[in-house]
Each structure stands twice: as structure tokens, then as C-alpha cells.
Design goal:
The protein has 11 helices and 4 strands; from the N terminus they run H-H-H-H-E-E-H-H-H-H-H-E-E-H-H. The protein is mainly alpha-helical. The strands form 2 sheets. The chain has a two-stranded antiparallel sheet. A two-stranded antiparallel sheet has the order 3-4. The protein is elongated and about 125 Å long. About 5% of the residues have low confidence.
Length: about 290
């Protein structure tokens, strides 16, 4: 009869896949713990979520806007109140989305005459949604004949300087040409610059520095595209023209000081325009005789 040997090795157990060999996890990088969404979710393309050129704020705003229902307000003021970045950064992020084709913003006139901005969110960059069954596609616009094409609207008048010197006008032209460095939307043509230069010269005549004039023309610009930047600048040059500086009487001329000389009579030092005698020597009775 066989006897049990307690020192013999135990019989190896069979390996069960998935029980004795857990799934290998990466040593670094993200690990996803996902659940399946069945309601209240938005499908967003990775071309936006992983865009190589958009900033993080622009990607976040793009995802947020695509998740909103139709008709939800997405103006700069509303978004700045929703997020902590502020109006300036929100406006810059919207321009990024617009430049890469995820937003289309157009200005339209309502029946009551107000100008509003229409925003279209595109879930594919640069794509335009096909017309729905209830909305007939608009017919292509007829290309106007040369005689029917609208003429360019004249710019508003600007203030004129009292002394349009060449140096003053040259300074004004240089200031206007440099506005595009402050905002690329302020790129002006040669014709527009020549029209606006006298208005800038009128400001410079009023004891304002070029820096102060530049700040007055470029501060608090609207966030919407500037279709006629020269017209906007002409309006500001006229509407915000500062008053002339207060009158200041010219300073009196300095007192005339004659050179120091020696009196021909007593050799005393005097100030006189010509060589001669001092007052005492001229009044001496002997000298007078």
C-alpha cells in the first residue's frame, strides 16, 4: 500500500487566462476609465479636441459651443461671464476658432434696424451644413454689371490742422501706418491714410504726443470684424477731438546785460554797452568843466 509523502511537492494547478495573468497596464501616460453615455452627451471630432494649432481656451470654447442647443447665446459678454478667462482672452479664442473654420460670424440687420451678430458653429472645420427640407437654398447672387456695382462710400470728413506743415503731416502718416502693429484690422490703404493724416495732425497740434493719439484711436475697438477701419478712425478723430490747450502768454525776453568794463576815469568796474565813464565820473563837476 502506498503511503502519503507530506514532503512531496504539490501538484501544479492549471492556469486560467485572465485570473492568474491580469491585464498589463502601461507604466506611464493616461489610463481611461470610461462609461457608455446614453443621454446628455455631445459627439465632438478629435480634429477639434486634439487640434495642433488651437490654444487650450479655443479648444475648450469650441467644445462648449458645440454642446449648446440652438439659440443659446454665445456672445463675448455671455462667455466671459461663464468662464474665468475674461472678455479679451475669450474674444481672441473666438477669433482662433473663426480662423480655423469652426465658427462663422456675420453681422445682419434686423427688421427693426438693429445690427446683430449671427454665429454658426461648425463641427467640421470650414464645412457648411446642407439646406434642410424646410429651408430652400438661396439662389446664387447675380453678378452686377459694371454700371450697377456700388461705388465705394466716401469717408467722413476729418478735422484740419491750422498749420499743416510737412513735418507734422509726415508724423501723422507714420502714426497711421503703424496702427496695423497695434491691431492687424487697422491696415489702411494709401488713399485712406492721406485722407486721415490731416485729422491726426490736428490732434498733434493740440499738444498731444503720438502715443496719446495712437491710444485714443486703438483703445476699446469692437470685437467684430472691421469692414471699414478708415471710417471708424475718421469718426473717432472727429468725435473725440480734444479742445485746444489753454492759452499761455509768451515768456518775457531775458533782461539785457551789458559786458563788464573799466571806467575810463576811475578805473572802476561797470557794465556798459560802450567804453566810457561811470555815473559818478560823468557827474563830477570837474569832469563836466
Amino acid at each position: 500500500m502506498d503511503t502519503e509523502n507530506p514532503s512531496a511537492p504539490a501538484r501544479p494547478q492549471s492556469r486560467i487566462p485572465g485570473k492568474n495573468h491580469p491585464r498589463r497596464r502601461p507604466h506611464s501616460g493616461v489610463v481611461h476609465d470610461n462609461v457608455r453615455h446614453t443621454s446628455n452627451f455631445t459627439v465632438v471630432g478629435n480634429h477639434l479636441a486634439q487640434h495642433p494649432e488651437l490654444s487650450g481656451l479655443a479648444i475648450g470654447l469650441g467644445l462648449y459651443i458645440q454642446s449648446l442647443p440652438t439659440g443659446a447665446p454665445v456672445d463675448i459678454k455671455t462667455l466671459a461671464a461663464r468662464f474665468p478667462e475674461g472678455a479679451t482672452r475669450v474674444a481672441a479664442a473666438l477669433r482662433e476658432l473663426e480662423a480655423h473654420g469652426y465658427l462663422r460670424r456675420t453681422r445682419e440687420r434686423t427688421p427693426d434696424g438693429r445690427i446683430v451678430t449671427r454665429t454658426v458653429s461648425c463641427n467640421g472645420p470650414g464645412r457648411r451644413s446642407a439646406p434642410t427640407a424646410t429651408t430652400a437654398p438661396e439662389p446664387p447672387a447675380r453678378r452686377p454689371a459694371p454700371a450697377d456695382r456700388p461705388r465705394r462710400k466716401a469717408l467722413p470728413a476729418v478735422p484740419q490742422p491750422s498749420n499743416p506743415s510737412p513735418v507734422l503731416l509726415r508724423t501723422a502718416v507714420d502714426l497711421l501706418a503703424g496702427l496695423r502693429r497695434e491691431d492687424p484690422r487697422l491696415l489702411l490703404s494709401t488713399t485712406d491714410t492721406e485722407h486721415l493724416a490731416p485729422g491726426v495732425a490736428a490732434w498733434l497740434e493740440r499738444d498731444l504726443t503720438p502715443t496719446a493719439v495712437r491710444h485714443a484711436l486703438t483703445s476699446t475697438l469692437p470685437d467684430e470684424p472691421l469692414h471699414r477701419p478708415a471710417a471708424l478712425l475718421a469718426h473717432r478723430l472727429t468725435a473725440q477731438l480734444p479742445p485746444p490747450p489753454p492759452f499761455r502768454a509768451p515768456a518775457p525776453p531775458p533782461a539785457l546785460r551789458h559786458p563788464l568794463r573799466n571806467c575810463d576815469g576811475c578805473d572802476r568796474g561797470i557794465r556798459a554797452a560802450e567804453p566810457g565813464l561811470c555815473r559818478d565820473c560823468r557827474s563830477d563837476p570837474l569832469e563836466a568843466a
